[in-house]
Amino acid sequence: MELAARVAHMRGTGGNGWGILYRARAMIAAGEQVVMLTIGEPDVRTDPAILAAMAQSAANGHTGYTDIPGIPALRAEIAARVTARTGVETRAENVLVTPGGQAALYTAHQVLLDPGHAGLYISPFYPTYPGTIRASGAEARAVEARAEAGFQPAKADILAASAGARTLLINSPNNPTGVIYTPDTIAGIAGACTEADLWLISDEVYETQVWEGPAISPRSLPGMAERTVVLGSLSKSHAMTGSRIGWMVAPEAVIDAAHELAINTTYGVPGFIQDAALFALRRGAGFEAAVAAPFGRRRDIVRDVMAGSPVVGLTHPAGAMYAMLDIRRTGLSGEAFAARLLDEEKIAVMPGESFGAPAAGHLRIALTLEDGALEAALLRLRAFAEALAG
Ligand code: PMP
């Protein structure tokens, strides 16, 4: 019996460096103490008040089938949020509620790409990106953002890769680099999309984690709203990863197609999860700032610990919950360094190679560990790197 080729195509060739994560998990399962700086999940649980709203909604009976593109109040709330953040008039009809940002990523590429097209994405990249693009049958084509350019993608490189392409996927604030695209970068991206007639898919799931702005949503640039799809999520902004709740904001024709896809796939997002999301969004900017605050503190810790190191470089971390360390002066690859750090110091980090070639010789640190433990682990990492180089 044979399987469809679709998923094999989606899987692609696989990344490098994931072995570190699996090995660290196996060590923990075998009872060893390992400091985990690998996974991008907030280290706090969903706020009890949000859970209470969820439970109340379920108890009130919002447990049946619900509005497939999202309940009207939540679509309106998201539209108002996006209007306020981008200055672009956005209506509930421009919003589709999805089971998480990942489903919004998948939906966007499904409705915009066909086999024979190419979908562009910026490398280094969030690891699901190429597979999500290939799931549409299209070719996933990387545009490299270089370490030497602070991982800011260049307009010329996007244009050079654009033959046969229909979409460009970007992410700012960025996972894995912690970079925020500058106004010049955003203008270059918008210009490239207009010149090459590309849809822009802007993954803004880290929009509340901005340490040094501005973080510009490209949908706000002239002429961009009609060719931009914005993806959002409550996973990071409200520590709701397990609730699987996010959205897609796009021109109405895109939302109509996405609605059709949802009818045939998810059949909507549970009503009590949507009610909890509405409650969470209505708590406002103060709550979001409080959820983001620990990551901002920890990015200062990374900066202070690595300051003045003759060996370890730090890509300027302007946003998101990650820091990208440059360990090329040790002479080791990111993978080799991470393997030795795990064996000799029992610290697990992600090798840059797992996020694409431009991040080779780097390590991604997730700032998801309590401040004191993070600082202690980073001091050990720095000493380890300096001894290797030394
Ligand atoms: N985009 C990026 C860049 C991410 O890092 C993540 C999660 N780590 C997602 C999208 C998807 O998040 P979720 O599906 O939980 O909203």
UniProtKB/TrEMBL annotation:
Which family does the record assign? Belongs to the class-I pyridoxal-phosphate-dependent aminotransferase family.
Xref: PANTHER family: ASPARTATE AMINOTRANSFERASE (PTHR46383:SF1)
Q: Keywords for this entry?
A: Aminotransferase, Pyridoxal phosphate, Transferase
The superkingdom listed in its UniProt entry is Bacteria
The cofactors named for this UniProt entry are: pyridoxal 5'-phosphate
SUPFAM superfamilies named in the record: PLP-dependent transferases (SSF53383)
EC number(s) on record? 2.6.1.-
Q: From the Swiss-Prot or TrEMBL record, give the protein name.
A: Aminotransferase
Catalysed reactions, as listed in the record: L-aspartate + 2-oxoglutarate = oxaloacetate + L-glutamate
The entry lists its GO molecular-function terms as:
L-aspartate:2-oxoglutarate aminotransferase activity; pyridoxal phosphate binding
Residue ranges annotated for the Aminotransferase class I/classII large domain, each copy included: 33-379
> InterPro entries, alphabetically?
Aminotransferase_I/II_large, AspAT/PAT-like, NHTrfase_class1_PyrdxlP-BS, PyrdxlP-dep_Trfase, PyrdxlP-dep_Trfase_major
User: Which species expresses this protein natively?
Assistant: Paenirhodobacter ferrireducens
Gene Ontology biological process terms from the UniProt entry: amino acid metabolic process
